[in-house]
Amino acid sequence: MTNELDIFVGNTTLIDEDVYRLWLDGYSVSDAVGLRVRSGILEQTGATAGVLQSDTMDHYRTFHMLERLLHTPPKLLHQLVFQIPPSRQALLIERYYAFDEAFVREVLGKKLSKGTKKDLDNISAKTGVTLKSCRRQFDNFKRVFKVVEEMRGSLAGNIQQHFLLSDRLARDYAAVVFFANNRFETGKKKLQYLTFGDLAFCAELMIQNWTPGAVADSQLDDMDVDLDKEFLQDLKELKVLVADKDLLDLHKSLVCTALRGKLSVFAEMEANFKNLSRGLVNIASKLTHTKDVRDLFVDLVEKFIEPCRSDRWPLNDVRLFLNQYSASVHSLDGFRHQTLWDRYMVTLRSCLLRMYHD
Amino acid sequence: MPGKLKVKIVAGRHLPVMDRASDLTDAFVEVKFGNTTFKTDVYHKSLNPQWNSEWFKFEVDDEDLQDEPLQITVLDHDTYSANDAIGKVYIDIDPLLYSEAATVISGWFPIYDTIHGIRGEINVVVKVDLFNDLNRFRQSSCGVKFFCTTSIPKCYRAVIIHGFVEELVVNEDPEYQWIDRIRTPRASNEARQRLISLMSGELQRKIGLKVLEMRGNAVVGYLQCFDLEGESGLVVRAIGTACTLDKLSSTAAFLPACNSPSKEMKEIPFNEDPNPNTHSSGPSTPLKNQTYSFSPSKSYSRQSSSSDTDLSLTPKTGMGSGSAGKEGGPFKALLRQQTQSALEQREFPFFTLTAFPPGFLVHVGGVVSARSVKLLDRIHNPDEPETRDAWWAEIRQEIKSHAKALGCHAVVGYSESTSICEEVCILSASGTAAVLNPRFLQDGTVEGCLEQRLEENLPAGCGFCHIPYDELNMPFPAHLTYCYSCRKQKVPDVLFTTIDLPADATVIGKGCLIQARLCRLKKKAQAEANATAISNLLPFMEYEVHTQLMNKLKLKGMNALFGLRIQITVGENMLMGLASATGVYLTALPTPGGIQIAGKTPNDGSYEQHISHMQKKINDTIAKNKELYEINPPEIPEEIIGSPIPEPRQRSRLLRSQSESSDEVIELDLSHGKKDAFVLEIDDTDAMEDVHSLLTDVPPPSGFYSCNTEIMPGINNWTSEIQMFTSVRVSRLSNINLTNQTLNKNFNDLCENLLKSLYFKLRSMIPCCLCHVNFTVSLPEDELIQVTVTAVAITFDKHQAVQTTKTQVEKSSQRASIDNEELLQFPLELCTDTLASHPFSSAKEHLESTSSNSGIPAAQRAMPVEKASPLTEGHFRQRSAPACANSTVGVVKMTPLSFIPGAKITKYLGIINMFFIRETTSLREEGGVSGFLHAFIAEVFAMVRAHVAALGGNAVVSYIMKQCVFMENPNKNQAQCLINVSGDAVIFVRESELEIISTQQPIASCQPACSGGEIAT
C-alpha cells in the first residue's frame, strides 16, 4: 500500500528549521531523510523512517510553495495564504538569502548572466555546494541586482527595503551587486587568499566614497552602483605625483623623514618607495579604462601587497607607511589635488590594510 | 423592498499579469447581486489597481438578502477580444442581517479562480441597511442567529431550548447538465459554487422560518452538508437545534450559569454498554420495487419484539424507577412525565448539542443509531425533496423509537451523514438517548431549574450515569451495579455516548482517543443486488466495530466512551467502518475487568502456550495503559458497594437482528461465564488478527495526548498556543489478493501512521493534546482509500499536568475555566465536585467520601469550597502567565473547538459557511496530487481567515471541514477537489488583556489571573 497523496496543512504554517536548512542546501528529499536519520532524530522521537519521509516531503512542498513569495519578500508579508508569525517570516527570508562564502567568492565580480549560470555546475563541483543551492544563491544575486540596479539612493538601504534583509545581509548584498556591476576581477589565483569579508569591506568603502552618491551635491544622480565617472577622470591628475621627478623625491623624503626609526622595514621601504608610489598612483590614473577598473584588486595585490609581503612588512608598518604616505602629500606645495587625493587614498588605504594578510 | 445592500470596491493588489506584452493588467470589477450588476472603471496597467468606486446600491428583498451571495468578479479588460476573468469573490452577507453580529464587512479578500487558485486580493466594503419588515407573509427569517457551535455560545444564555430543526433542498447538479465535451471546467465549477451558495442561503432562510415559528431566535449546533448524488441531483441539507438565546450584558457575561453551556450538566447522560442493540441500525432490506422501506421495529433487537414503535414509555418507566431508585425513583418518574409531555408534541425530540446548560441533562441511555441503504436512481421525482425527506423521516423515526426503548424521551448529540457510491447511498443517523430536564424545553425560567437542582440533592457528577431504563425490563442485557459515586442508583458497567464529557463528571486519570477500524470486501454489483449486499454487511460491521471499541476500551483500563462517531463508508468493492471516541474512566462506573483469551482447541500444548503468551501481553498492556493514563481508582471494599444485584451476569451479550428477510438472530455470548473479564475467543485467524491489532495500536509518544472531544478529560491547564490542521492521505491498495485481513491491516496502518506523523510533526508543541480529532474516510475509487483528519493541537502546562492527583482542584478549575467565570460565584458546583472527586485526592478525603456516599448535607459540602477556590485561583495565575505572550496582530485563529484557550469570546459575528471547487489540468506542474491539494487547502484556510477578518473577527471556532471530495485522473493530468467548511466567526480577547481592562483583582496585574484562561469553553 503506497500513499499517493500525503499532506499536512496547518492554520499556522509549520516551519522546521532543520529541514529548511537541508532544503536550502539543495538536498533531495531522500538525501535529506538520510541526513535526518543520521542526526538521530528517529531515536529521539521514536518515529519511523516512513514518518520522516512524509514529514520531509511535506516541508519541502511547503518551502517550494513559499519560494515564489520569497522571491519578493514584501509579498510574503502581505500574502494571505500562509499564516506565518513575523519572526518566522524574517527567519525564512534571511535564511533564503543567506549565501555560502565559498560560493560567493566564485561568483563575485562575475557578470550575473546566463553564461555564468551555465558554469554553476563547475562551481558546485569546486566548492562542494550543491548545484541546486548554487542556483538559488546565484538567482538571489541576480534578482537583487535587477531590482536595485537602476535605483537611486543608498544601495544597502534599497536592498533592505525591497528584500527585508537584516542590515548585515543587506550590506553584503550591496557588495555583491557592486562587484557584479563593476565586474571586479576576484578570481585570479593571487586573489584567492582574499575572503568575501575583505572584498565586501572594500566594496562598502568604495560605495561610500567613490560613487556619485558619495558627493553631497549630486543628489539628483545618487547612484551607488557605479563608480563616479568624473572622479575617475579626475584621478588622472594624480599622475603628477610620480611623473614629476621632483615631486616624487620630495614625497619620498617627507615620508622617510617621518618614518625613520619607526619602521622595522625602513630600509626596504626606502628602497621600494618609488615603486610602491608609482604602483598606487598608476592604478588611480588608469581607472578610466573599464579593463583597469576590473583589475583593480589584481593591481593592488601585484603592485603593493605582494612587494610588501615579500619584504615581510608587518601590518603595523604598512599602516604607518600608508598613513604617512597619504598625509605627506598635503605638504607638497606644488600639488593641487588634495581633496581628490584624500578621496582616493582614504578608501584605498583602508582597503589595502584590510587586504594585507596571508 | 426591505433592504439596501451597499458595496464599494476600493482596491486590488498582487493581481496576476494578464497582458504578457506589458507584464501588467487592465483590471475592472463586476459586482453582482441577484440579477443586478454594476461595474467599476477599468484601472489601466497596474497590478495594484485603486478603483475607489462609488457605493453600488442594490435594493432587494430580505429574502434575496438571505439566499443570494454577493458576487464580485475581477476581470482584465481587453479591447479586441473578450475580457478575461481573473477570479471571483463570493461574500455571504448573512452576518450583516442580524443586529448583534457584524455591522460592516470590510477587508482584503483573496480573488479566487477555480482553475488557478488565489490570484491576488481585492479590498471591498459591504454594508446593509435593513428596513423594518411589516409584511405578514414574509418568507425571510432575517435576524435568526446561526451557530455551528454545539453548545450554547459563550456570550449567550439559553432561555428555552426548543429542539430539532431540519431542512433539505434539492437541485440539479450543474456538473451533470453539461455534456462532457462542451463543458468548460471553469463555467461548471462556478455554476456549482454559486448554486451551493444559493442553496445554503435558501436552506438557512427556511430553517430560520421554522425557528421563528417555534418562537426561537437562534439555531445552535447548525450542521449543513451537501450530497453529490450525481445525476439525481445535488442535495443540501441541514439540522440544528432551535433555541431562544439571551445576550448577556457585559456584566452578566461573567455569570456562570449561562455562558457555559458545555460546562456543566448536572446529570449527565448515561451511557451503556456497547450494546449493539442500541446501535441496531437496521439496514433496510431492499424491496422489489424502487425504494427501500425501512422498518425500525424489525431491525431492533429483541426487546422490541412488538412492531409498535410507539412503545408506551410511561408504565415501564414507573416500574423501572420503582425498583432502581430509592429517592431518585419518584422524581425520575415525575421528571419523565413532565419532560415527556414537553417533548411529546415534537416530532423529533432531537438535539444537535453535545454539551448542555447545567441541569439540562438528567440521564443518558446510550448510543442510538440507524442506517439505511437507498438507491438514488430510483427516486421518482429527483428534483423534489419529498423522497429524501421521507428517507430521513424514516431514519429519525427509528432513532426515536430506539431511544424510547432505552427509556429515554430525547436524543442528544444527534447527527446525520451519508455515504454515496454511484447510485447507492447509505444514510446514517446517530445520537445519545437521554432523559432531559423539561424546564428548559418550555416557556419557563431557567432559574427555576437551577433552584430545583438544589432541591433535588442529587449526587453530583454521577447522575447522568444512572440508568434511565427499567432494570427489570432492560432493553438489552447489561451488567448493573450500584453507582460507585453515590451508591444509590444503578449504573451500567460501560457507557458509550456521542456527547462531550459533562463538565461535572468525575473521571480518574486522563482520557485517550480510541478508534475502531474495519474493512469488508464486497462484490461489485448493480442496483438492488448491491444494496442488498451492503445491507447484509452493515450489521456485521457495526457489531465488529463495537467489539473492537469494547476491547480497546478494556485494554486501556477505561469504562466509558464520549464523542463516539461511527462512520460507514461505501465504495465500489468494499465497505469501511471507522469509529472514533474518547475513552475515559468514570468514577461512577465499576472498574473494568480485563480481557481473557480463550482458545478452542485446548488439547494442543503449544497452542496453549501461545494463548498464555498472548494473555500475558494483554495483561501487561492493560497495566501499562493504566499507568500511562494515570488510572488508579481507589480500592473500594466490597461491602460498601452493597449487596450484589441479583441479575444475570451475562453482560456482554451482544445481539443483533438483521434485515427482516433473515430469521436468524445472531447471539453471541462473550461473557464466558466470568464476571470480570471480557473474553476473546481465538477460534480462527480472524480473531487472532483482532488480538494482534489490539496490541499493535501504539500509544502516543510521551507528552502527547489525544481525544476527539472538546476537552481532554484530566487536562485543564491549557496554555494559549493552538495549531489547527488538516491532514489528508490517499493510499492505493495493491490489487493482488485483497482479503479482509490485508485490507484491515492496510487501513489500520494508514490510520496509525497518520497519527504517528501528526505526533512527529507537532513534537515542538509538547506537552500538548490533540483535541477534537476528526477522522473522515472516503473511497474515491476502486483501490483508493482517503483519510482526512482535522484537529487542533493545544499546549498545556507540564508542571500542572504532573499534579493530576489533585483532581479536586483541577476539577473546579476546569469547571471555572469552562465557565469563563469567577469561581466563587458557583460554590455549589464546586463543592459537589469536590465531593465526587475526593476518592482520589487525599486519604482523609477519601475516607470522607466513602462514608458520605449516601449524600452529604449541603452545609457540610460547602466546606471544601473554601479550600478549593484559593488553590484554584493560584493555579489560574500560574498557568495563564504564558498566555499573554503571543498575540500577534492580524492573525486569525482557527479551531474546531468552541473556545480559545486563554481567551474569552466577546462577540459572535456570524456563521462562516463556504464551498469551493478547485480543478487543474496541469496536475504534474502543480506538484502532483499532493501539491495540488496542499495548495488548495492552504487557500481555503486563507479565504476563511480573510472573511473572518473582514467581519472584524480574529478567530473561527467550531470550525469543521465537512467535505473534502478529491478526484484525480493522472493520465489526463487532471484533478478536482471540492471542499466545504464552516464555523463561527468570533472576536476573542486574551485573558491577559482583559486583566488590564478590569482591575478587579489587584494581584492579577502581576500574574494574569484568568479564570477561563485555559479552557475558556
UniProtKB/TrEMBL annotation, chain A:
MF terms in GO: fibroblast growth factor binding
Underlying gene: FIBP
High-level lineage: Eukaryota, Metazoa, Chordata, Craniata, Vertebrata
A cellular component term, taken from the record's GO annotations: nucleus
InterPro entries xrefs: FIBP (IPR008614)
Protein name: FGF1 intracellular binding protein
